[in-house]
Please model this.
Amino acid sequence: MKAKVLNVLTVCVVTLTMLSPGLVVFGIIWERHLDLVKSQNLAYEVNKITKDAPALAPQTEVTHSPQTSIQSSDRNVIHQMLTVAEKYKFATILQWFFLLTPICIGLGILFYDRYLVHRAAVLKEQVEMLERLWQQSIEQ
Model:
């Protein structure tokens, strides 16, 4: 029974190991796709609003130099990129956690089972050595 459970666990861990890189990549691509769709929808809404009501569109003052507006837009883009990078960093850490946790549990069970086999073999050798010593003491 124990060997069957170990075989099933081994097959599950190997299958998870083989499929997990694909799942991680799919998760990252799917998140980026959703962000792209969201940004396209927002761009569509902004274009729709500016075409429908040009008076409500944000007006830039003539007194501002073009360089100042470029710098502020660069800062906004950099801030958005840092926010997105932090979100992807957290998602990547979370995905690796969910990937490595079952693998570590499976390896822990496997190594503990091997440790128990080793301890049983050492105990058996010690018992045999004590039996030989006992037989020698009886013979003398």
The radius of gyration is 32 Å. The CA atoms of residues 79 and 123 lie 63 Å apart. The chain has two helices and no strands. Residues 66-139 form the longest helix (74 residues).
